[in-house]
User: What shape does this take?
Amino acid sequence: MQTLETKRKDIVNFFLKKGMLVSNDLLECLGDEENLAEICKLVESKQSENIAVLNKKMKDLLDYKQPLFEQGLSHEEISGSKKAESEGNVKIIFSYNKAPKKREANDFIQYFNNRYDAIEKILKQRQELQNTTSISRIISKKDREQVSVIGMVRDKKYTKNNNCILTIEDKTGCIKVLANKNKPDLFKITKDIMLDEVIGVVGVNGDKIIFSSNLLFPDIPLTKEIKKAEEEAYALFLSDLHVGSKNFLEEDFNRFLKWINCDLGNESQKQIASKVKYIFILGDLVDGCGVYPGQEKELVIKDIKEQYKACADFLSKIPKNIKLIICPGNHDAMRLAEPQLPIYKDFSEPLYNLPNIFMVSNPSMINIHSSDDFPGFDVLAYHGYSFDFYVAEAESIRNRGGYDRADLLMKFLLQKRHLAPSYTSTLYVPDTKLDFLVIDKVPDFFVSGHIHKAAAATYRNVTLICGSCWQSKTAFQEKVGHNPEPSRVPIVNLQTRQIKMLRFGK
Assistant: This one.
């Protein structure tokens, strides 16, 4: 019988002949025949090009079951279809595609550890947090001294004197953080600190407490480059079509379809329409079935497959040279928990039959308009289900317009570097490898929908765009006092990064 040591030597020699070294961490898991076979397949594939050392990341690729997306290959390369034209290039940087599996309590623990690790890494890039100390070491300190620490917010309370007391934790322990009301700039920050987010703290240690002088979010670096394309081209953003609803504004949407086909508008408007290369649809393509009690009374199409067929009929009228990138929303035929897979083909096959369509997950990262001389634009697409929570819970958003200020919501999440930093802000599927709602890669565009109001803004050279809707006010919206602004389309000139708001309502 072959000994373990002999087996490992054989494995090392095998990969040496391939011109690759095997790290010790990977060698530990290659004793499993299935793992070894899968690694061998990866080595023989194109994914292994330019790899000199095989390490545990190769094992992680197996666990993700989505190495092609993680490698940033294009949709066409993955599907085997013809590669897109350079002026209409679409590459899927990330789209969640993991198979469902049973979740255990430990999955949640690992999920929050992964979140902490990911955002800690971002925070440590800040100068103020270069020399952080673990909480256990701070607690053991006897003398008062300047300290910095990174922790996840476990609790937030206000004292009788109206000072803020945070409880933060890392993997070594937990500690209280005092933010004094007499420091207005510091105290203001506490109003928007959410439970479960990861923050940086700078201050002076006391007895199991830190007297804070600064509270830091991961945020977007000030050095973010603003990219501009060399030629004039446009991308536009739709969301919340709600096809199948009795409130679907079919006449308005047909007016949009006429414009995109250069059959409506003045010469300048038609000229813009002719240069549209990309259309993003950010969830809620259909109204769905059984989304809320009594919904059947609000539907003109009561079969979910028929809703998607009707939606596909509308979208088929968009010129085929325009790339359609579609992610799901909370009304689509999907699980509600995030990250959501691309819309299920079983329900929406007519959409998949469209030749110019790219179905991605919610959230997802898509690169558009790249060429040999230009890296393209990275677009972070997120429907926005967590927005409802932060409209209610984040004071700076609630007091400055709430649902009317999508730009504040999106800026808020960029500052946190997470699409749903609080445990209860959205339903989610815990993953043992990564938190897929962390914004680890800074996008050029952050685009969303959900709140039925269009908005556009810029934050630290990241363009923020929220799509409108194609549904008139519903009974539910009337009840809660929500006033949608339908039939508006934000459109971006990729050459200048200027944004116009087109209106197709009466």
